[in-house]
């Protein structure tokens, strides 16, 4: 006949370092109600629910179960129920949690807070120091944020990042200041809890004129110089010392780690080149020790140097070249060859400003940005004077260097290249034609002559075909020798008795033979005469 118990609601877990607190709410009004919790995590065998140590038969609405959690990166499940005289409520909803995700960073410890010569020296210890179980394994990963203010009603708080041991300067003398510190993990995006507030009163500051003051570092193209002011009227020498920055992050006394800067010992000037000890990695601290006598010395305050932030980017070198309406810009990075390390770390880009240098031209300067050391500016007006200057800048560090000196160059006259090319082509074509025509004519004439001489066309007309035509012979070639018909003429008339032999027919035959074109030459005359005599004798 008892009223059923209600389940607990709003289950929450609060984790600070390795301290675990389970909280819930209960809306029931029954007296004598207690609460018990169970938990499990996936890595246990069988993943069975187990009683949560420190959270059994609890009369309130929270319990501490720090002793039960040993694995801070595993997923855990928690549930709660109400109990009363053997009666139990249904289990609450299951709460899932990963201790490392839920944990908050606890407050660090303030070991020392002391006023010295108008300044406050503070020493802090990391959270969970000297504890066997730690949620945060690497103490060096902590960043400490100090918040301080004057202990007055209208004071505005100030904040500063500090190391394990640090000095707070620029405080009003004889004034009470209050301090609180928190430890943060920027990489994980976690902010810790503040320490309880502690207050201390500052003392009067003793002004020692021997000490170097107003220390400052100037850097240009990774060349660094330390400057300071001298208030001492007597001769004084200085020694510059430096400390590598990460040593301050380590726990312990780093006072013996200061080292002398080469070339900056026992100097009388108020400046020194410290580039030999400054690299692009990490950060550094510098201070100056002043000596006026063997027994008189004073250490100045410290100045921090972050090379890539302190350094200023110088102007680049610029060379110009012009081709028609194109302006070619060749850029020499700042620092020359020795500035290569700086350029690699900064990732330099270049901003080019160019404009027409004309008194009657009010055109604004145009901007072109490039990551290369060679750039081309197109579409320039012909026969116009252009001026240019270049600036190097780094987007990563949000730094812009000085502009280079102004350089000017004039573009060339406009040339109608298409018309020139067309005219040149036409002139060349006409010249080729004029030179080729005589040559073609000469070759044709030579061909005709050669064909006529060596290969004549000889075909007799049809009306004289069949008359024993013969092969054509070139008139310019020697013809084969024709056979010569030898004929004899008997001039005398011989009368034989009874018969008269008349040689007129023979003579007529000879005449006909001469008409046919076969006539003997004079060299055959003697042969003809001999033949005539022989014939005459035979007749006789």
From TrEMBL:
One Gene Ontology term of the molecular function aspect: type I interferon receptor activity
InterPro entries: FN3_dom, FN3_sf, Ig-like_fold, Interferon/interleukin_rcp_dom, Type-II_Cytokine-TF_Rcpt
Protein name: INAR1 protein
Residue spans of biased composition, Polar residues class: 514-529
Alphabetized CDD domains for the sequence: FN3
Gene (name only): Ifnar1_1
Domain of life per record: Eukaryota
Entries under Pfam families matching the protein: Interfer-bind, Tissue_fac
Segments crossing the lipid bilayer: 416-444
A cellular component annotation (GO) from this entry: plasma membrane
Residue ranges occupied by any Fibronectin type-III domain in the UniProt entry: 7-103, 312-414
Keywords per UniProt: Membrane, Transmembrane, Transmembrane helix
